[in-house]
Write a structure and sequence with these properties.
Elements: H1 20-41, H2 48-61, E1 65-69, H3 72-82, E2 90-93, H4 100-107, E3 111-114, E4 137-141, H5 152-162, E5 165-169, E6 177-178, E7 181-182, E8 189-193, E9 207-211, H6 214-224, H7 245-255, H8 258-276, E10 282-283, E11 291-292, E12 298-302, H9 310-321, H10 351-359, E13 360-363, H11 371-385
Parallel strand pairs: 2-3, 2-4, 4-5, 5-8
Antiparallel strand pairs: 1-9, 6-7, 6-11, 8-9, 10-12, 12-13
Helix pairs in contact: 1-7, 2-7, 3-4, 3-6, 8-11, 9-11
The structure holds pyridoxal-5'-phosphate (PLP).
Pyridoxal-5'-phosphate binds near residues 97 and 171.
């Protein structure tokens, strides 16, 4: 099975995992007008649409600075570089995330150190972080996976005790809150992706780094512009990473809908929760009292088999035959990926993550999903469970 780049698009007569065409039907006219405005302005790189989105996004999150960039991956890379993390350093993160989170650690020359997750939230197991910290540890990258915030109080107190930085990977959690604070505003740096499938998605690539630290802001802006804060004077090896003017204009419009969309996701999650919780062999994702989750994915676990993915894969196949398309985020934990063979991890190192990879199934979740469709998802799933 290999999915094409538009894997979220719908198959005829199927309930898709995500359908961006429905969103476009609602906001299309506004988006077209905004794009038209950028096109006629002649400012295609930088300019007022980028500046104004950066300010709006910072205000929305409650941070002083937002730096637009090309992708969530670049945002994480820039965060590590701005913190001077490189060869000889270690960065702690989760093995149950999209590759980008760990990839950037390797890209700056540092070493990813994985810590197992908590099956109830799919996020880092806070009790296992302290023992992974060494003299070389420079940062922790907690991921607010599927839109569910990490326990940021616990992360910040471990980090503070050891004098290490916290970079929040908020790619899947734009608008989520931990104890009333938006994620990305709590750690030293917050990183966001505007990939189309994220809660705040562009019509192409985009990302942002946010912080309250002026020195980090200056470094990030310097690094994303070829290591230059003064034109044609280069003080470091940087990269070229820009949020396009067109994407910024589109994102500004979508930002005004984000709370409404996130609330729709929360309602859908509550519906799923109620309908699925009674089913035996299904474990629904848990939201703690301190979090305001925004459900980029609604990911259940099929617990009948923990040692292989056979049962889950079979249910997924049968669901598809009944017209319900689901996704597997993520089938292989990062510590067992070929690229990380050299780190020396083996099967059995992170038993919770390994088990979860065999059991997870992300069912349709997007703001425009109807209650009738949700019911069809649940009835079909019931049938497949036997
Ligand atoms: C999407 C994603 C990224 C990378 O974002 P891009 O914009 O695709 O580069 C990083 N981390 C997580 C957890 C993601 O889901």
């Amino acid at each position: 099975m290999y999915l094409n780049d538009n894997f979220w698009c719908e198959q005829v007569n199927h309930i898709p995992p995500l359908d961006l065409k429905r969103q476009y039907k609602i906001i299309g006219e506004q988006v077209s007008a905004a794009v038209q405005e950028v096109l006629t302005s002649g400012y295609y790189i930088g300019g007022s649409s980028v500046k104004s989105f950066e300010q709006q996004f910072a205000a929305y999150l409650g941070v002083s600075e937002c730096i637009g960039c090309n992708s969530g991956t670049d945002a994480l890379y820039l965060a590590l570089r701005a913190l001077d993390i490189g060869p000889g350093d270690e960065v702690i993160t989760t093995p149950f995330t999209f590759i980008a989170t760990a990839e950037v650690i390797t890209a700056v020359g540092a070493q990813p150190v994985f810590v197992d997750i908590d099956a109830a939230t799919f996020n880092l197991d806070i009790t296992k972080i302290a023992v992974a910290i060494t003299d070389k540890t420079k940062a922790i990258i907690p991921v607010h996976l599927f839109g569910q915030p990490m326990d940021m109080d616990a992360i910040m107190s471990v980090a503070q005790a050891h004098g290490i930085a916290v970079i929040e990977d908020c790619a899947q959690a734009t608008g989520a809150q931990w104890r009333g604070k938006k994620v990305g505003s709590i750690g030293h740096i917050g990183c966001f992706s505007f990939f189309p499938t994220k809660n705040l998605g562009a019509c192409g690539d985009g990302g942002a780094v946010v912080t309250n630290d002026d020195n980090l802001t200056a470094s990030i802006r310097m690094l994303k512009e070829h290591g230059s804060s003064q034109r044609y004077y280069h003080e470091a090896t940087g990269i070229n990473s820009r949020l396009d003017a067109i994407q910024a204009a589109i994102l500004a419009i979508k930002l005004s809908y984000l709370e409404q969309w996130n609330n729709a996701r929360r309602q859908l999650a509550a519906n799923y929760h109620q309908m699925l919780q009674p089913l035996s062999g299904v474990v629904v994702p848990q939201e703690t009292a301190s979090t305001h989750a925004v459900w980029n994915q609604y990911t259940i676990r099929l617990t009948k088999d923990s040692t292989s993915s056979k049962y889950r894969d079979q249910v997924r196949q049968q669901l598809q035959e009944k017209g319900v398309n689901s996704m597997i985020y993520y089938p292989i934990p990062l510590h067992l990926q070929p690229v990380y063979k050299t780190l020396g991890y083996q099967t059995g190192h992170f038993p919770v993550t390994e088990q979860v990879c065999n059991q997870v199934l992300s069912i349709p979740m997007f703001p425009e999903l109807s209650f009738e469709e949700q019911q069809q998802v649940v009835y079909s799933l019931k049938d497949c469970l036997g």
